[in-house]
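Chain and backbone:
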Amino acid sequence: MAAETPHTTGAFGYLNRIERIGLVALLLGVIIFGVVTEVRSAFLKRRMTDVDTYFRAAWAVRVHKDPYNVTDTNGWHYNYPPLLAVALWPLADAPAGHSRAGLLPYAVSVGIWYVISIVVIWLGACFIAHAFEASSSDPMVRSQKRYCRRWWALRILPILVCMPALGRALARGQINCVLLMLFCLAGAALTWRKQIAAGFWLGLTAAIKVFPAFLLLYAIWRMRFRMLVGAATALLLGVIVIPALVMGPHHAYTAESRFMQVVIEPALGLNHNTSRDRELLDVNKTDSNSFEAMIDHTVNIGRHTPAPAPWMKIAHWSISALCVLITLWVEFKTRQHHPLHRNLFLGALITIMMPIVPICHPHYYCMVLPLVTTMLAVRWEKDQKLPIGWGLGLVLLFFAASHILTVLPPPFYILRGLGLVTYAALVLWAAALVMMWKLRRWVPVVATAPADASG
């Protein structure tokens, strides 16, 4: 019998029977969840999904109507920049009483969107995991065989940790799975020191959902001007060029102006438009886990929550500023040209960005998947046995459990308003900063792929 080698056993060996059964079970779970999501979204008396708002906005773009004026069957509005509505043109859904000529059946569009969401989750996990493997300082990792145990672990474990949050996003038909993939692409680009590409992917997320523009703080803090060029290019294309080409310059300008008027300005307190209060801005009618909402729900625990007092808003921005300053300070004290360090910093910024957004829904936290992947890659970079350890294991378990507990009925339901998922994310953020600090002792790894500038 041939002698066993590291490439046939342990982390570099192929999956055993139980592990293969586990993968099949996971795939079956994804299919079953898809069927449930399809039924909830398309076949109930009331559509239990947010994706209908995207499809209605896409229909408005097709027929040259205002995408911010149409509503879905629940009376909800489209609250994103025009780019998403333009991109979902093929999945458009017309309101009752309007022609459906050339449109797919709504149920088919829902199914396609679910499949797209699953695919981009998997692609994102693969993109960033491959970047870490190919840039590893360990030659065994760089030469590992595809589909070996370590290959699967670096892709599946982060998905399992984020699965409860991902389930929330998938059930609601949210766009966050696409943003997750773009964050993974940005992280992979940073691994290879491709600054323009990294900036482009981050800029594209901002063109889709605005608040990820916060992540350009990475480029500003580290003075990566090529990243800013890439981000500016994506924003120019996503905010101006593509909408103008599809909608026409006049309709695109009108749509951008309406978006500012009904979403951005009210959120910043610059006008008193109340059309989005019920679905976006009212702390009592939205499922927010921002610092502001957490403070409000905690102070008023057990009774109707009034609008946040001025001191709560001050506390929100004070806590936000403190978290950002701590993140920047740790990055400054630990700075090195190491691909894992760059991704820990980006992942920490992604995580702390969520509760800073005044309306932070629990499903937003599925976008921490790149950070979870990075933390596991750091843990395994110097140990081929794929340990997780008690410390990191408890952090990841707490994060996953927080999303399970907050969908359970009373008495657990109260944990939702108190912001348990945000507390768990803060623990994850703190663990990432600790890991950045420990990474200082490592010899910097220089990626072997071509780079457009220093990391």
User: Anything to note?
Assistant: Residues 106-134 form the longest helix (29 residues). The chain has a mean pLDDT of 90. Residues 34-93+101-441 form one domain. The chain has one domain: 34-93+101-441.
